[in-house]
Amino acid sequence: MELVKFDLVNKDIDGKRILQDISFSIRTGEIIGLIGPNGAGKTTTMRLVSGIYRPTSGHISRTYKESGVVLDRDGMYENLTMREQLNYVSLLKTGKTITDEEYSTITNTIALDTGSKRISKFSKGMKRRLSIGCLLISKPDLILLDEPFIGLDPQGQKSMQKLLKELSKSSSLFISSHNLDLLEGVINKVILINKTILLEKEAVNGESLKPMYFKVFEDINIEKE
Hints:
This protein is an alpha/beta fold. It folds into two domains: about 1-65 and about 145-225, P-loop containing nucleotide triphosphate hydrolases (Rossmann fold), CATH 3.40.50; about 75-140. It has helices at about 40-50, 80-95, 100-110, 125-135, 155-165, 180-185, 210-225, and strands spanning about 1-15, 15-25, 30-35, 55-60, 65-70, 140-145, 170-175, 190-195, 195-200. The strands form two sheets. It has a six-stranded mixed beta sheet with strand order 5-6-7-3-8-9, with helices on both faces. The protein has a three-stranded antiparallel beta sheet with strand order 2-1-4, covered by helices on one side. α3 crosses α4 (about 125-135). The longest helix is centred in the last third of the chain and has 15 residues, at about 210-225. It is globular, with a radius of gyration of 18 Å.
């Protein structure tokens, strides 16, 4: 089932063309890696998928019931505890606080339970996990993660890989990143982007993404010469 479909989408920001003729789809069960260099339009694509941005032209259809977005900015109240932050988000979304059972489910999924510790004392990786935990309150069928590995140490990166695999059991994932190594073994589909879609293919478990990535961008550079 298609959750999102882009059909020849263009996006201009401040009179500048950021994305050109973008067409792709996100289907149920897919774990997609959106890969490209800095400035390729990954974050803009994320915001178009989520509805934060509207396309300048072209069409985007969305059939998912609920989605969640994790951007690089965590946007949480630093003086709250983890449970208080989850309760706050739950009140906004459902009108009630989370139950002990719901809290246990979320903490088990994100592998984080910090008790009375304030968010201001959290590491970047802990904040990223809690951001994801807040999304789980609404049980999204699509989760968008913009550069989820940025700012994490090697242990935090491994933990994030494990968490992404856990999330994929119940949600489709759309993950933007410029780090190929960290996406290998996590995604089952790859989209290469640099202002337009360069390549879209299934990602085979155990297959290195680097040769494909460098071959595509090498061919582009040759065409420009």
